[in-house]
């Protein structure tokens, strides 16, 4: 999640010294975001990815991270599905944001939407944050925000973690990891938790995960 805010509660010094408006990223559950963010009507951009590709990405991030233990696919899959991973259950997180989907200060977009039409995503996001961009600026931002562009500059932006954070960036890589049984189990979990919700519809699960 990205927020535009006049305050940041986790880091003192650097952020406090940065002039407003300021941007920060977090994986916090919305219920754990300080109430002052909601009271001050902080703009929050929430980015979701379909759960199957999220699991695959999280698995590789964890196993490629030098400070974390290596885990088997089966072990990580089962723990992800039960919510026994850092930041908790994907579905609990999604349902918490579903409750805030009508908040005018919350914008939810999907990774898949941005992959399909990044320029349009830039237009919508910039409008949400109150920025007026020319088409040339939209093109420039979109060009620099593709997965390929970010991966190529990862060493400068993220140092040695660049190759850990930026792997493939593809939609549908889950097909190279899930067994048919695991795919069906995730389908059932999605239907149980998110079927019939607006966020569930926005994730376009049938297109991207079946």
TrEMBL record:
Entry keyword set: Transferase
Gene3D superfamilies: P-loop containing nucleotide triphosphate hydrolases
Superkingdom classification of source: Eukaryota
A Pfam family the protein falls into: Sulfotransfer_1
InterPro entries: P-loop_NTPase (IPR027417), Sulfotransferase_dom (IPR000863)
Catalytic activity, EC: 2.8.2.-
Family in the record: Belongs to the sulfotransferase 1 family.
Protein name as catalogued: Sulfotransferase
Species, as recorded: Seriola lalandi dorsalis
Taxon lineage: Eukaryota, Metazoa, Chordata, Craniata, Vertebrata
């Amino acid at each position: 999640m990205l927020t535009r805010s006049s305050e940041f509660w986790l880091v003192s010094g650097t952020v406090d010294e940065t002039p407003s408006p300021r941007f920060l990223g977090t994986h916090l559950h919305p219920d754990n975001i300080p109430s002052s963010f909601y009271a001050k009507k902080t703009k929050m951009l929430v980015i979701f990815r379909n759960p199957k590709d999220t699991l695959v990405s999280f698995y590789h991030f964890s196993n490629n991270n030098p400070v974390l233990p290596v885990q088997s696919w089966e072990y990580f899959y089962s723990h992800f599905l039960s919510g026994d991973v850092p930041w908790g259950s994907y579905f609990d997180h999604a349902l918490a944001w579903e409750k805030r989907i009508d908040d005018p200060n919350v914008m939810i977009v999907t990774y898949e939407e941005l992959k399909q039409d990044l320029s349009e995503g830039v237009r919508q996001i910039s409008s949400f944050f109150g920025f007026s961009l020319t088409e040339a600026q939209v093109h420039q931002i979109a060009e620099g925000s593709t997965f390929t562009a970010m991966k190529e500059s990862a060493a400068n932006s993220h140092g040695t973690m660049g190759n850990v954070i930026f792997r493939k960036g593809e939609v549908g890589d889950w097909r190279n990891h899930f067994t048919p049984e695991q795919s069906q189990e995730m389908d059932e979990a999605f239907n149980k938790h998110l079927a019939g919700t607006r966020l569930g519809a926005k994730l376009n699960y049938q297109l991207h995960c079946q």
